Amino acid sequence: LSSLIVNDVRDLGDPDPLDEWLDTDPDTPGEQITLRSALELANRREGFDSIGFNVPGREHPCIILRSSLPEVTGPVLIDGTTQPGRDFSAVEISGADLGGGNSSAGLVLSGGGSILRGLSFTRFRSVIPGEIPSPAPPNPSGILLRGRGGNRVEDCYLGLPPLGETGAGNEGYGIRIECPDNAISNCHVAGNWVGGIGIFGF
Questions:
Q1: Does the global pTM surpass 0.90?
Q2: Would you say 48 and 75 are in contact if contact means Cβ atoms under 8 Å apart?
Q3: Other C-beta atoms within 10 Å of 140: how many?
């Protein structure tokens, strides 16, 4: 088990992925760990990885992606409830800046046995805001579960920011499921264009 703590909301990758350090910004004092760099390292390691959050000065951090996150190919816990906060904690992952032509879900899990907790997935779309999407694929969803299955999604916001503002839905589903033996519990799902939860292919 390895434990990684994200402390930077910027969408930066690891400039030296082979050195086992996750400092995405060597010019800034301290180690700057982003969600992207933590996922990259988790994919390179064997076994179960844990990713938590401690972003200074933000009760509900928002990570605005510049490109699709790497597909998660092994078991991992990504826990937004670890972010310090007064009442409840959740970390928003937004596709607002991906622009037209995006075909990727907010997060793709294929390694099986993963847990997502206290995360919000918003604005993953293939068209720019204000345009009506085509009913034909791709319709990006907030989360895509495929591959081995056996995942758990708990206390997440699918199409809603942590504070519940409207107008932040995903173009596809809040969560699209293409593998068996998953559990979805205590999630808030609203505002997604195609639907809330879609189950396919098994």
A1: yes
A2: yes
A3: 27
Q: Which residues pair with 123 in a beta bridge?
A: none
pLDDT tens for the chain, 202 residues long, are 678 999 999 999 988 777 767 778 888 888 899 999 999 999 988 899 999 999 998 778 999 999 999 999 999 999 999 999 867 778 999 999 997 889 999 999 999 999 999 999 999 999 887 788 877 778 999 999 999 999 999 999 999 998 888 889 999 999 999 999 999 999 999 999 999 999 998 6
CA distances from 185 to 8, 61, 155, 157, 172 (A): 28, 22, 7, 11, 20
> Quick check: 119 and 164 in contact, CB under 8 A?
no
CA–CA separation, 62 and 186 (whole Å): 21
- Output b/e per residue, 63-92; b: 16+ Cβ within 10 A: bbbeebbebbbbbbbbbbbbbebeeebbbb
Q: Rounded distance, CA 108 to CA 104, Å?
A: 8
Q: How far apart are CA 27 and CA 119, in angstroms?
A: 29
